[in-house]
Amino acid sequence: xxxxxxxxxxxxxxxxxxxxxxxxxxxxxxxxxxxxxxxxxxxxxxxxxxxxxxxxxxxxxxxxxxxxxxxxxxxxxxxxxxxxxxxxxxxxxxxxxxxxxxxxxxxxxxxxxxxxxxxxxxxxxxxxxxxxxxxxxxxxxxxxxxxxxxxxxxxxxxxxxxxxxxxxxxxxxxxxxxxxxxxxxxxxxxxxxxxxxxxxxxxxxxxxxxxxxxxxxxxxxxxxxxxxxxxxxxxxxxxxxxxxxxxxxxxxxxxxxxxxxxxxxxxxxxxxxxxxxxxxxxxxxxxxxxxxxxxxxxxxxxxxxxxxxxxxxxxxxxxxxxxxxxxxxxxxxxxxxxxxxxxxxxxxxxxxxxxxxxxxxxxxxxxxxxxxxxxxxxxxxxxxxxxx
Length: 388
Known about the structure:
Elements: E1 2-7, H1 14-28, E2 33-39, H2 41-46, E3 53-57, H3 62-79, E4 84-87, E5 100-103, H4 112-120, H5 124-143, E6 146-149, H6 152-162, E7 167-168, H7 175-179, H8 187-195, E8 200-204, H9 214-228, E9 233-237, H10 253-262, E10 268-270, H11 279-284, E11 288-291, H12 300-307, E12 312-315, H13 318-324, E13 328-331, H14 336-347, H15 350-364, H16 369-387
Parallel strand pairs: 1-2, 1-4, 2-3, 4-5, 5-6, 6-7, 8-9, 8-11, 9-10, 11-12, 12-13
Helix pairs in contact: 1-16, 9-10, 9-14, 12-15
């Protein structure tokens, strides 16, 4: 039996949470694995049903997490008698006592667009913080035995950035897990969805942050409304554009001000944060999924959208083309005009839409959390054998 130690301390939002929610239960069900997971108390409660897993709860602020990991995790790994370490949050242990697999899934460190964006907003402290974390992330690829990226496109980007070989192992998707919870949405969310019926409903699943490029999407709304008139357009957001209501320190005030200045308040429907288990209800109430993100590593909502039989309009990134293929139409990432054109094209061509839905069904079948766990376990066993 292989003893695996998984560091999930960074899993607090977005892709990190999605990863932990899907991977840890599968590892718990593998009789050939004994798993110890370092988690926050909140995630420990969410994973309470994982009976074959030992949890180590560690609470720390994001600023202290790296130093806490470097000092405490080696002791915990030895205590658990683990054979291998899976570092799931972009940073590796500098002197891991066992072979180490690093999962690198943060493209902000390699994105020149993100650094320019921060500078344009005057967020110089965040710029410096990202530079420092980027340096640590690059050094981490030296400390780990193997670095794994969630897509071939991002693996290539990391190889160019670090000068080191990077292995691509797709993140996965479980259609049954995603859509099995029939618990209803809250009444206020249901009412907002009802109010949007009859309109062309665009869906963007994300908490507010800068790299998802909300402002380009908002600027496209009046252009799109002009093209589709008299049919109304509604943009469904799974966040609130209010300071303090989103993970991290991203300030949505610029986006909220833009909505007011353009007079599109009626077109923007802020649903607020939706529990992951109920997200499938929201997808079912949309017509087109749209993402203007200017950097990505995998983009789980694209797979969720394809599984929900939604056509996609996505910014033209190598990662988006790799994940979606013919299930999406693409536009220049900072072009509101291009975004409006892409959405109008999908909305106005039923034949193209049907073809995209069929292509999406095929693409979804390529992503499996079970396969991901199997490939990680196989890689782990290879590293252990090489160390013996």
